[in-house]
Fold these 2 entries.
Entry 1:
Amino acid sequence: MVVREALSDDDVDRLFRALADATRRDIVRRTLVDDASISELAASYDMSFAAVQKHVAVLGEARLVTKETRGRERIVRADPARIARARELLTSLEELWLARFGQLDDVLAGPT
């Protein structure tokens, strides 16, 4: 049996704030496929190395990526379990809204 820790509202806010930016979503996608150094990531974007570092820091605060020091490089790796957690949260919200739409359909249909 898998027991998931409950996420606080702050954890959920950090998670979705991190995923709200296109560059950060791309960094997550790229580091799911293969680990990458911050230098390798920075070479792919039209922004400074420091800006990419900040994006990685936001992802790290949300625990969507981890950083590991290898020599002089910081290697970034996405955390698939944390991404799955985000998917679960979205699925639960979807189920809630689908149930509410079903209730609305019943109200709009009126008495039978």
Note: The chain has a mean pLDDT of 89.
Entry 2:
Amino acid sequence: MTAPAPIRPRHPQWGLPRTPARLAVPLVAGLLLAACGPSPVDMVEHPVTTTPSRVAGEELQRSAEPDESCAAEPVPAEFAGAGQRRVASEGQVPDRVEVPRSPERILALGAGAVDVACALGLQDLVVGTSGLPRDADVFLPHSLVDLPDIPIPAGVAPGEVAAAARDLRPDLIVLADTPGRDPAVARELSEVAPTVVYDADVLRWTDATESISDAYGRPRAGGDVLLDVIDRARATTARTTPSDTQVSLVSIVGDTGDGVVTQDPDTLGSLMLEAVGAGRPPAQRTREGERIPPLPESPALGDELDGDVIFTVLGGSPESEEIARRVFSSDRWLELDAVGARRMFVVDRAVWEGAGPVAARAVLEDIANSINGIAPDG
């Protein structure tokens, strides 16, 4: 049953980890591979497209299937017996927390915590959420999206957050450590149920996945989920040879003069493009999530928004579609080579600025389905 709640606050943006030893190489350096696959020319002649709906006059490329995103069955808890066990908790004292070996009522306060619960098939154990993006239902099922929402904006009394949490009777709370959050929130929540805080830094979603999975009593399964993302990234590289294509990633926003900017490199979509070795226009090049200057022999040419293909991130506010209509009809936009070649694809902000393995899988599927294709003619 859906509980009335205030509008969800803007969620933090998360990306790949800085470099946990066993994952950074496979997800970044290790996937910049030479692979066999169809050429961009072949794919343009035989395009692969997904076109479930239209937005701002353009087809929306949406590969995620919300009702199929979560594991169908819950991954079994990995620690036998009743009682509790100790797990690490980020940025607080004590730095280890006693949690149930097999939690049964999870309060997932952070988009990453919700995403990982979905990946592990624990969606039926989640009793409330926080931090989900506005359009989370494009890749998460309503069984998660429609749960009671406990927003934790700056300025809200920690006691009020704890009171809302207490009404949901959780036996485990997992809380995103986001910039500006009052440290007292975690202390107050710990009076309600064992509270584990995970690092929600924008570049560390794989670290967060491991921490959250451990809190849920499924650390090995969390590692398996990340290995699955690595396998899918490798398959995407082999299937589409993205290094052959300069991929422009832009964002429709309402706070700039012309309504469109190059996408922040510290977002899941940008970092997954990096992980599969996609070529990027000189003005958009990144390394380990950080913008790097163009090489002297590869000066930026033309509009920084342009590339062989453009992924356009859209959504997140009621005004985004109207802003996109203005952008898509502007002279600057219509003069981009990729737009003229019908190689511009609109993708969901909730997915491409996601926070966990379920969103990462959806980004990879969007890349695989569109990067070498052409968009349907309006």
Note: The chain has two domains: 21-65+234-370, 76-217.
